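User: Structure please.
Assistant: Input sequence and predicted structure:
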Amino acid sequence: MKDMTPSTIPTFQDMLDAHERIKPFIHCTPVLTSSYFNDLVGAELFFKCENFQKAGAFKVRGASNAVFGLSDEMAERGVATHSSGNHALSLSYAAGRRGIPCHVVMPRTAPEAKKAAVRGYGGIITECEPSTSSREEVFADVQAKTGAEFVHPYNDPRVIAGQGTCSREFMEQTGGVDMMVAPIGGGGMISGTCLTLSNMAPEVEIIASEPEQADDAYRSFKAGHIIADDAPQTIADGLKVPLKELTWHFVSNHVTDILTASEQEIIDAMKLTWQRMKIVMEPSCAVPLATILKNKERFAGKRVGVIITGGNVDLAKLPWMAG
């Protein structure tokens, strides 16, 4: 693969190269169906289960592509990032497989299950306050001290190319869909989805799903420019971060629409998936299904892909157990 700087827009070939590079380190995750949800929505739903992925989330794709794409000289200094959880533990996983250090800045409020997973994979955690500004300030200090290669959770062409491999597998597993729905926070997964589908199946509508209480991507999409919130509050902890220039490129050019769901709708969709599909998923991953259930008429009669992005849940703090 050609050398990529953080401002480079990844290409379809970058995604294909990424898939070959990361195959030894990831799972080709299954696609599940549910007659219950099909009947409920009046559509054919296909769930791409990245909750069964290595490190428990799709983010291991992009992290592995970044880590294993480094030259030996760059890899010696290790990698560093800031993340609320899944990118942190995915980068720690990939770095561990390559035998290099991984420095991670995490909000002190990040789920303990995710912090424990980062440490379990060998990641070195520095905590920050739960805001984008604090995260970036603390990270700048960590990177200055370590000299490690920054692998941004989503605004990085290597990461976006890696995330795009998920949709490639999905299309090969299902033979295609009319619509693809994925959650949006910073936009790494949705950007990878756009990268792949705009080349493999440009007729597929790409829908992004977002919490009402962290709807900066929705407002950005309507306004035509990035609107960033510093510290939104939502149960979907993986979707609190704002879009950046690379992900905005894909969202503004390829996303058909952004739909939102309330906190209760997210919790209800998460619980329903646990009950009916018997799979563990985290709140952020329930947002797509929540928006589909909220807008059934939009999806009726269609073949719809749904990306379940991860399953790293604090089992002692399930949202329906509160109170």
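The domain at 60-150 is CATH 3.40.50.1100 (Rossmann fold).
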